[in-house]
């Protein structure tokens, strides 16, 4: 029996059969052959959105760039290409994605279908760059869906519920450099100046450490054309991003999981050990950070105006709880978009992500945070842990029933359903 696990190790499935197609035609044949099918990319979702005990379709062999127009910036790719590979191949063409998250192992189809995002008050999630996509339906029909298609706004973040995405056309931009400025600040100071920090930078995010007033801020801004690269030195990258942020942090988390009472002191130390630094580099080299310490994550999208109140409620919970949380909280921002099932649909958004080390049970912590977030009309990231069902999503997504209507048209027999989709979308 084949066993499949996601990156975090919290989701396991035992598919009866695994396919690894290299083309859309092979996907069509696989879909027609099996009654239940789920596609999987890199397995980087913390939810069981791709899990199945039926037929599992791995897309990692579909990793080619099919066409690139460097004049218009339109790039057609197979859906299984990883963001890691795509970023480097786009750079070689003089192109880039306009925004990225902070890790890059995800497939293009997985990242767009779950609403993966970065940060930037005037920018959007990765799916906003989708100009067209190719979708294999439950009947094995191949649909080409672009901006003129009535399913376009449903399909860009399709949750794997509408069909198998096999090709994606991305609207890229000319390659650009970012100047990164990273420095510690008091959380109270960040919240006092939050609007200025968010609106005054192309990309702003911060992490804060529970049980402390410590935060680490990241400001990334485009530089004028002709500015030379000034990347981190190799020794600084090795020290900060590999040794301290991964090797040492893994050991610290192991200690924290065994001796929780030490966590407030550990967090105070973690919040001060990484000093200020500045550098200028290719956009994807600035956006992406190595993340090798395994964790579990829950992230919610709230109206941006709720950021300070929600964080204040979180701080009050940390102060009164007998639980100690060793992982920092990540806070990011994006502009409102027009994609029906995007967490940023029609509202400027603050994303608040909470984490726990993979050896620590996150259940009660994530439940407490979920209560705070849904009180502010929170929408959970489709690929990150939550316990909410279709009743909640119908309240917070104005086009929820329209999306279900598209699903009924494309997959009336629920060939692409699984337990997670039944939870979040209903039967």
TrEMBL record:
UniProt keyword terms in alphabetical order: Oxidoreductase
Protein name: FAD-binding protein
InterPro entries on file: ALO_C, FAD-bd_PCMH, FAD-bd_PCMH-like_sf, FAD-bd_PCMH_sub1, FAD-bd_PCMH_sub2, FAD_lactone_oxidase-like, Oxid_FAD_bind_N, Vanillyl_alc_oxidase_C-sub2
Domain of life: Bacteria
Domain called FAD-binding PCMH-type: residue spans: 11-175
Pfam families (UniProt xref): ALO, FAD_binding_4
Protein species of origin: Aeromicrobium duanguangcaii
Record Gene3D superfamilies: 3.30.465.10, 3.30.70.2520, Uridine Diphospho-n-acetylenolpyruvylglucosamine Reductase, domain 2 (3.30.43.10), Vanillyl-alcohol Oxidase, Chain A, domain 4 (1.10.45.10)
């Amino acid at each position: 029996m084949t066993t499949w696990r996601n990156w975090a190790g919290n989701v396991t499935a035992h598919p009866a059969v695994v396919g690894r197609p290299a083309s859309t035609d092979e996907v069509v044949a696989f879909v027609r052959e099996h009654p239940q099918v789920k596609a999987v990319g890199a397995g980087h979702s913390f939810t069981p959105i791709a899990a199945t005990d039926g037929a599992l379709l791995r897309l990692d062999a579909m990793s080619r760039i099919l066409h690139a127009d460097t004049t218009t910036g339109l790039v057609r790719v197979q859906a299984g290409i990883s963001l890691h590979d795509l970023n480097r191949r786009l750079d070689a063409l003089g192109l880039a994605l306009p925004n990225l998250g902070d890790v890059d192992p995800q497939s293009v189809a997985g990242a767009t279908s779950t609403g993966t995002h970065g940060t930037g008050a005037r920018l959007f999630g990765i799916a906003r760059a989708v100009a067209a996509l190719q979708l294999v339906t439950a009947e094995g029909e191949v649909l080409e869906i672009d901006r003129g298609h009535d399913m376009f706004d449903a399909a860009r973040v399709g949750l794997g519920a509408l069909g198998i995405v096999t090709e994606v056309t991305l609207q890229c931009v000319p390659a650009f450099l970012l100047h990164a400025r990273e420095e510690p600040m008091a959380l109270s100071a960040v919240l006092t100046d939050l609007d200025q920090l968010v609106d005054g930078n192309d990309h702003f995010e911060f992490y804060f450490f529970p049980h402390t007033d410590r935060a680490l801020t990241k400001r990334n801004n485009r530089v004028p054309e002709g500015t030379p690269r000034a990347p981190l030195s190799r020794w600084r990258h090795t020290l900060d991003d590999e040794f301290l942020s991964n090797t040492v942090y893994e050991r610290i988390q192991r200690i924290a999981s065994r001796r929780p009472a030490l966590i407030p002191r550990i967090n105070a130390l973690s919040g001060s050990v990484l000093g200020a630094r500045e550098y200028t580099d290719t956009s994807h080299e600035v956006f992406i950070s190595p993340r090798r310490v395994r964790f579990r994550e829950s992230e919610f999208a709230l109206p941006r105006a709720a950021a300070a109140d929600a964080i204040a409620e979180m701080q009050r919970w940390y102060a009164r709880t007998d639980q100690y949380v060793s992982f920092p909280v990540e806070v990011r921002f994006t502009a409102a978009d027009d994609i029906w099932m995007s967490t940023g649909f029609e509202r400027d958004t603050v994303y608040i992500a909470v984490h726990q080390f993979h050896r620590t049970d996150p259940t009660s912590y994530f439940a407490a945070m979920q209560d705070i977030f849904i009180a502010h009309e929170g929408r959970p990231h489709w690929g990150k842990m939550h316990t909410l069902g279709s009743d909640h999503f119908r309240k917070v997504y104005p086009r929820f029933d329209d999306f279900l209507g598209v699903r009924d048209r494309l997959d009336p027999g629920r060939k692409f359903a699984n337990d997670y989709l039944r939870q979040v979308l209903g039967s």
